[in-house]
Every structure is written in C-alpha cells, then in structure tokens.
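Quick one:
INPUT:
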C-alpha cells in the first residue's frame, strides 16, 4: 500500500501519541516534512524516515545535553576539590571561562573541555613539576611493562621517545597524551575502526546531531563532519569528537557569514525560503521571503534556528478559515489591527478589522486554547493571566466605543463560517 499523509500521521501517532503533530504533506520518505513538537512548540523539518527511525526535536535534544553552570561547577569540584574556583559564566564546552587557582590566587581563561581534560593554572605550571620517577610510576600503574619510556620526563607537553614492547616499535608522544589514553599508533592501525563502526559510535553518543561525511583513517586524522543542528561542515579528529568537542561554530569559535546562513536555510528548508539581506550577527534581524506564499518578513538567525518561520503561514487554522471566508465574501479587512488608545503598555492587536468602504464594520477575535486554560507553550500560568488581562482590555474598549466584536472560541472551529454568516449577516447583507 502506498504511503499517504493520513497513513503517515497514523504511523507517527502510534509511535509518539500526541507529542508530535505532522504539519506538512507526505510526498516520499526522503522529502522533508514539517512536524510540531507539542511539548516545546518548536516546528522542525526532517525526512519522514528519520522520524520513524527515532530522530526527534533537536532543540529539546540539545537542551537535554547542555551542561549548566552548576553541573560544570560540580564536575570541577569532583575533579580538583576546592583547589580551583569557577569565576565566569558557563556558555559551552569550547568557550573559554574564567577560573581561579585558589593556591596562588591567579585568574586565567580556559575552555571547560580543556580544564576537564587536564589544563591547569598557567602560572603554576612547572612550579611543582612532576619528577621522572613519578611519571614512570604513573605509566607502570597504567600499562605495567608494556611500554618503556626511553628519555627522562621534562614536562607534560614535551614529546618523549617510547618503546612498545609488544610490537618492538618506537615512536614519540607527549606525557599528557599517553596518560590521557593514547597508545602505539602502529598497533592501533592494525585494529582501527572502520568508517561504519565510527559512524555507529558517533550515533550512539550523539544520536542524529552529527553526520560523518568523510572516511575514517585513525583516531587522530581529521575527518569531515556536519553538525545537523546548524548545517556547518568542519573537520575534527575522531578522538576530539568522541571526547565531547562539538561544533566550532555553535561554540562561538567561528563567525557565520551570509553564505553560511543561506546554506543553513537551504539545508533546513530547501528552496522554500530566500535570504534577502546581508547577515550581521545572530541577534540582528534580516529580511527573508517565504517562496511558497511570497510573504516577506524579518527574523534573526537565533529565531530561525529555534523554528520560527513565515508569520503569515503560521496563522492558526481558525485564523486561516476566517481569512478565506472574508476573502470569498470580498470584504475589506486588516489583520492585527490596532487602536492607539486600546493598550496595556503598547497598543493591543485585534485579529481582524472588517471594513465597509472606509467605515469600520466590526472586529473579529479567534480565541485559541490559551484563552481558556493554561498552556505551557504560551507562557504557562503567567502567560494565561496576560492573555485574560488583554482580552478584558479589548472587550471593555469595544463596549465603550460601541464597536461590534465577534469572538470565536477554538472549540467552534468547525462552525466558523456559520458563525460569521450569522453575525456578519446582522451587520451587512451579502
């Protein structure tokens, strides 16, 4: 049986219940379709087969993986007790943060990833240098007699010749790298992972967040990857990837360009959106066009990455039915109509203002679920209070000005046309 949109919706519902809603039309398993994650309200676009195979809302996935300030402090405390203190605010594992060495009082910058992997106070580095005997004891504790270092230990980042007694090969390595788990490159090459094995390891660790593009050679030879969240392609060594070093662009180490943003848009939406202005930074709005409907609007990189799309097409089902009805009746109307004296802190918008010639005939409001109950994606309890307050201000305004106000609850979605026919019919003859 050929898969249809309806059948695909049933399949999604069987998997996740009402946690996700299919918004787009199913074409085939490889053509992207839009989903809404009802828990967070984000709209995401992905290939249908990926959803069936377990890919879900990338924003919730990233949020679940994001290390918090308190979590980083706990990791530091477990690692070094009270010898070091976190001074700055945690942003990302690749973004430098201010640390303080309590023994000497020196403040310095280090990335969280580097600190957790052994970077310490640069002022004290070497002041209490590890002895050759201490280093060799650490080596023995790790590998016994399997490896023999052939020169005296000088510093953690100084390369030393070492003999791997299993294969008889000599090579050079820093003390830091050896103590961090790196071993004989000759023997490693004989049992190295295949590309498919590395891809599976990445998938097991990160899900669909990273896509391996290149061919795996060894743990230290850089390989091409794509961060599916932002679309950025970059090279990184496999050991760094598996150690938690993420996308350099998302870590703030690489500045986006206009071309980068355009590529990201194409990767997310194909040719459905056009970038019309030059990209400045993630917080500065730029003009975009939704090709499907022709509507032009301004948004930021951050907003687009969070799932914000064409505001015209984002109308609720009820608002779209009202728009279609008014257009079919050839009535003049304005969306999001405001009066300067109907305000809370700013003028409050009415969903529709209907005109007869140049005279205001009435106002129409479509009230979604958030007008009648607490909805998490609309601000929870506080958001519900704000909605009720604004509804009250607008209702009182219409009464005081003698302006007819038609309010249609979301539970009357299927009767919208009948309600408008009846109430508008009392104001004007069609």
């Amino acid at each position: 049986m050929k898969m249809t949109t309806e059948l695909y919706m049933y399949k999604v519902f069987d998997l996740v219940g009402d946690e996700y809603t299919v918004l787009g039309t199913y074409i085939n398993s490889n053509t992207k379709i839009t989903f809404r994650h009802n828990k967070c309200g984000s709209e995401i676009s992905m290939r249908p087969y990926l959803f069936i195979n377990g890919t879900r809302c990338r924003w919730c996935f990233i949020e679940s993986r994001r290390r918090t300030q308190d979590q980083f402090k706990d990791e530091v405390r477990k690692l070094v007790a009270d010898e070091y203190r976190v001074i700055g605010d945690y942003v990302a594992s690749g973004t430098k943060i201010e640390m303080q060495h309590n023994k000497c009082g020196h403040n310095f910058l280090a990335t969280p990833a580097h600190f957790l992997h052994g970077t310490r106070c640069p002022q004290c580095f070497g002041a209490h240098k590890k002895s050759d005997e201490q280093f060799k004891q650490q080596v023995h504790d790790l590998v016994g007699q399997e490896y023999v270092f052939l020169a005296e230990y000088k510093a953690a980042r100084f390369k030393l010749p070492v003999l791997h007694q299993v294969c008889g090969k000599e090579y050079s390595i820093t003390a830091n790298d050896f103590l961090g788990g790196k071993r004989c490159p000759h023997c490693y090459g004989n049992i190295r992972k295949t590309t498919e094995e590395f891809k599976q390891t990445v998938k097991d660790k990160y899900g669909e967040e990273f896509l391996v593009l290149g061919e795996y050679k060894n743990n230290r030879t850089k390989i091409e990857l794509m961060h599916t969240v932002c679309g950025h392609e970059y090279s990184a060594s496999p050991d760094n990837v598996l150690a938690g070093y993420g996308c350099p662009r998302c870590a703030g180490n690489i500045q986006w360009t206009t071309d980068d943003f355009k590529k990201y848009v194409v990767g997310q939406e194909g040719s459905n959106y056009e970038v019309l202005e030059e990209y400045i930074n993630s917080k500065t709005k730029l003009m975009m066009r939704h090709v499907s409907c022709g509507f032009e609007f301004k948004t930021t990189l951050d907003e687009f990455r969070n799932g914000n799309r064409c505001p015209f097409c984002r109308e609720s089902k009820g608002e779209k039915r009202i728009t279609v009805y008014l257009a079919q009746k050839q009535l003049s109307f304005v969306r999001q109509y405001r009066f300067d004296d109907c305000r809370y802190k700013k003028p409050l918008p009415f969903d529709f203002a209907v005109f007869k010639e140049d005279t205001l005939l009435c106002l129409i409001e479509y009230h979604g679920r958030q007008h009648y109950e607490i909805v998490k994606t609309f601000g929870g309890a506080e958001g519900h209070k704000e909605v009720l307050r604004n509804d009250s201000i607008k209702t009182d305004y219409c009464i005081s000005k003698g302006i007819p106000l038609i309010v249609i609850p979301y539970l009357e979605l299927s009767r919208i046309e009948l309600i408008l026919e009846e109430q508008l019919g009392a104001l004007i003859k069609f």
